[in-house]
Amino acid sequence: MRKVYSGAVEALAGLLRDDMTILAGGFGLCGVPMALIEAIRESGVRNLTIVSNNAGIDGVGLGILLDTRQVKKMISSYVGENATFARQYLAGELEIEFNPQGTLAERIRAGGAGIPAFFTATGYGTQVAEGKETREFDGRHYVMERGIFGDLAVVHAWKGDTEGNLVYRKTARNFNPICAAAAKVTVAEVEELVEPGTIDPDHIVTPGIYVKRIVKLAHVEKHIEKRTVRERA
């Protein structure tokens, strides 16, 4: 099965359509599949539901899809740092489904594992639980949350082989592995592409069985969301 594509646009060809649900890895601006997001923007698809921890910042990451108004709904944990997001939401132009961060991670993981729903104590008695089934177990109250399984997942990895096995680097691992397992089709962008058998099997985080298409990045620009420095002693 041919998995390696020449570029992000080619890797997403034939997969994108209006009204689809897309899971995107990343946390802040770390481990975000920038090239694939840019290709989604170029495709012009609209009314997207995006599942991601956050929506990037203005003009960077998922923020570029907000700029072009291609997103109708965000399923996220944190949406600060993005003025465009705030404007569209307050104007009623963008729908938001907020999740506690751990709940969002578990919803995605559950979707990838084929688990349709689970119970968590997080959010019980708050707006998060409104309209959801609740139960009591061993004297404690829980909220039922649904697993998330999307049409497409886009992820960023440090290294991958031509069979789609992926390795993530440090905190760029974040939401990428669970997103990769929770969609009908997963497309990965990698900084380094190697031949099969080159990666130590014990180092593989996402097995190639989850990845249908892969593209090697010619250039990687790593943004810093907030730079904090201190005076030298």
TrEMBL record:
Record's keyword terms, sorted: Transferase
Alphabetical list of NCBIfam families matching this protein: pcaI_scoA_fam
Domain of life, source organism: Bacteria
Listed transmembrane segments: none
GO MF: succinyl-CoA:3-oxo-acid CoA-transferase activity
Pfam family, one: CoA_trans
Name recorded for this polypeptide: 3-oxoacid CoA-transferase, A subunit
SUPFAM superfamilies given in the database record: NagB/RpiA/CoA transferase-like (SSF100950)
Keyword Transferase assigned: yes
Originating species: Acidiphilium cryptum (strain JF-5)
EC number: 2.8.3.5
First-tier enzyme category under EC: transferase
